Amino acid sequence: MRRLRAIELAIDEHEIALAEAWLGLREETGGDPLRFGEEWRALAERWNFSAVNGLIERHNRHYPAESQLPMNPRTGDFVLLNGQPYTKKPLDAKWILERFPGEVHT
Asked: Where are the domains of the chain?
């Protein structure tokens, strides 16, 4: 539970920092959509998610044993939680661009 909460908090912190960076770059590029898009995608590729992705990796590896997650005996897969897999996807540039697009509308 603590690790899941730490993941949620880390993601929230990244979203806040990314929102600030997105707005700052929009202002810095002066509404030039081509420049903004290029620079935003480059920033997304450089963004460091190593700490939160480490937590996500540990969650994906240890969660089934820690929570005694039951297995489906026919498939050997762990059961779904509320219809969803227990695993979490690591964050990356695609994750950023889904939330903060590389286009700016003037």
From this structure: 2-99
